[in-house]
Design goal:
Number of domains: 1
Distance between the termini: 29 Å
Oligomer: single chain
Structural class: alpha+beta
Number of helices: 5
Helix content: 25-40%
Length: 136
């Protein structure tokens, strides 16, 4: 298994009422997960980010992984219910880093995806991201 804590910058600085508060991405995802559907055929992760992006209405972010067939799960893709161009420059930086952490979190939760053989290959996150997203 991948040790994500060593792979990503775990803290983000968020300013609330002129006070900066450090937030651990990994903990944030764990504490704000709306749903997480994981199987060897991929799945999805949905995270409530309304605490980070307060100007948006019911925003969420997450990650998903498609099943390509033949026991192979594709690259993990990040997504959001909003367009990041709506965000300030500082919020965009948070968005893109959190999006990457969501993908790595999902990869870890899914042990990389795919059948037992694919998992036995010991692919890491970077290897997995070189696989196609979709079989079509």
């Amino acid at each position: 298994m991948v040790n994500l804590q060593s792979m990503v910058s775990p803290l983000i600085g968020i300013t609330y009422n002129s006070m900066t508060k450090k937030i651990n991405y990994w903990e944030f995802i764990e504490n704000h997960t709306i749903s997480c559907d994981v199987s060897y055929r991929g799945g999805s992760l949905k995270v409530d980010v309304s605490e980070l992006f307060t100007e948006l209405e019911s925003p969420f972010m997450g990650a998903y992984q498609n099943y390509l067939g033949g026991g192979i799960a594709g690259a993990v893709v990040g997504g959001a219910s909003f367009d990041p161009s709506e965000l300030s420059e500082k919020e965009q930086a948070i968005f893109f880093e959190l999006k990457e952490v969501c993908k790595k979190y999902f990869f870890e939760m899914n042990n990389g995806g795919g059948d037992d053989y694919m998992q036995s290959l010991g692919r890491d996150y970077d290897d997995n991201q070189n696989i196609a997203v979709s079989g079509y």
